[in-house]
């Protein structure tokens, strides 16, 4: 395989840093969140942002799309939203006296789809995203339509809005690469927001990267080297999420799917790429593991009784599973870049 070179990494890291600085100017005091969002995007994954209202989730997504110059559509999810409202519908049109149904594209036909308050839509409407998020296509009346590439779903949801919401099913949660928790701002960040923002006004965001440059970044991330021992660590970590496979799994009812292992690998490579390394490490996997696993683990009743959260379980799993398996030779090596 043709691995990414040092010269390519140096140039790419400069572009990523400009993009990071731009987003830090959109959302103050959330540098780690922004790093994770960029990691997820470079890994070609969909991202679910969960946090209290007013923390800037929507502004972050809008700023990302503007800085990359990608086409973006926003869908406000409500209980009365229908599947056809997002996928599109066939429309009867008359041409030369002949009437035919012509497919009219919905807002899913965009590079970035902002699914705002996704958990307020009915399960039927939520299920309309399943094919789009996995296969990058939608099927209407038996006819498949390809979505534009790259294609990302960045969804937001508020954890405190329980009335009138529908929890996302496990099948859909599994299609999100990351579930990121947007934390509240501290006093210093709030002061910065007050001094630099006006109520009702949006921050000005310039396009800092062209479409071709962004596509090249996505291709280069795939060329990051993943060693066998790191792949072994990923496999053991995901296996440990299943009941009976580890000490920390006593609170788990259902563990993560193979898609979680693939997500960990892709995200770890993207993380290494952002740091200017041509190979993914154990630390890269450890950094992205909470965002990859927290929505792919279903806790049992005993966890609720004992007040144990999924974040606590994931942290215990990461601490319990060693980087190196005693039965696996230490073969981790740095790829020579040319």
List the helices and strands and how they pair.
Blueprint: H1 6-24, H2 31-42, E1 46-50, H3 57-68, E2 72-76, H4 83-87, E3 88-95, E4 98-105, E5 112-116, H5 123-135, E6 137-140, E7 143-146, E8 152-157, H6 170-173, E9 176-181, H7 187-196, H8 211-222, E10 225-226, H9 228-239, E11 252-254, H10 258-274, E12 279-280, H11 282-293, E13 298-299, H12 301-306, H13 310-320
Which key features would you list for this structure?
alpha/beta; Rossmann fold; Helicase, Ruva Protein, domain 3; two-stranded antiparallel ribbon
In short:
The chain is an alpha/beta fold and 338 residues long. The chain contains 13 helices and 13 strands.
Description:
This protein has helices at residues 6-24, 31-42, 57-68, 83-87, 123-135, 170-173, 187-196, 211-222, 228-239, 258-274, 282-293, 301-306, 310-320; strands at residues 46-50, 72-76, 88-95, 98-105, 112-116, 137-140, 143-146, 152-157, 176-181, 225-226, 252-254, 279-280, 298-299. The protein has 338 residues and is of the alpha/beta class. The protein folds into two domains: 1-223, P-loop containing nucleotide triphosphate hydrolases (Rossmann fold, 3-Layer(aba) Sandwich), CATH 3.40.50.300; 224-338, Orthogonal Bundle (Helicase, Ruva Protein, domain 3), CATH 1.10.8. Helix 11 (282-293) runs antiparallel to helix 13 (310-320). The chain is globular, with a radius of gyration of 21 Å.
């Amino acid at each position: 395989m043709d691995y990414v070179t040092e010269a390519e990494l140096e140039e790419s890291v400069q572009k990523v840093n400009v993009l990071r600085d731009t987003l830090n100017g959109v959302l103050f005091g959330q540098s780690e969140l922004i790093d994770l969002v960029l990691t997820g995007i470079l890994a070609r994954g969909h991202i679910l942002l969960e946090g209290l209202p007013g923390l800037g989730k929507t502004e972050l997504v809008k700023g990302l799309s503007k800085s990359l110059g990608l086409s973006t559509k926003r869908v406000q999810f409500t209980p009365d939203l229908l599947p056809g409202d997002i996928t599109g519908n066939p429309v009867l049109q008359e041409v030369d006296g002949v009437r035919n149904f012509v497919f009219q594209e919905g807002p899913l036909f965009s590079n970035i789809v902002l699914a705002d308050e996704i958990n307020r839509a009915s399960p039927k409407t939520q299920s309309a995203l399943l094919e789009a998020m996995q296969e990058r296509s939608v099927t209407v009346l038996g006819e498949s339509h390809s979505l534009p590439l790259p294609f990302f779903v960045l969804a937001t949801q508020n954890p405190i809005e329980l009335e009138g919401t529908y929890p996302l099913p496990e099948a859909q949660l599994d299609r999100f690469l990351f579930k990121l928790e947007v934390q509240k701002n501290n006093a210093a960040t709030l002061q910065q927001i007050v001094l630099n923002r006006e109520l009702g006004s949006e921050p000005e965001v310039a396009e800092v990267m062209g479409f071709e440059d962004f596509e090249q970044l996505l291709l280069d991330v795939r060329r990051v080297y993943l060693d066998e021992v790191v792949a072994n660590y990923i496999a053991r970590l995901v296996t440990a999420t299943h009941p009976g496979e580890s000490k920390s799994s006593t609170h788990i009812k259902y563990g993560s799917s193979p898609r979680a292992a693939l997500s960990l690998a892709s995200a770890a490579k993207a993380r290494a790429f952002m740091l200017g390394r041509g190979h993914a490490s154990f630390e890269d996997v450890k950094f992205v593991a909470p965002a990859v696993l927290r929505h792919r683990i279903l806790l049992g009743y005993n966890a609720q009784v004992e007040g144990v959260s999924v974040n606590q379980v994931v942290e215990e799993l990461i601490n319990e599973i060693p980087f190196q398996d005693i039965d696996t030779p230490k073969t981790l090596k740095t790829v020579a870049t040319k």
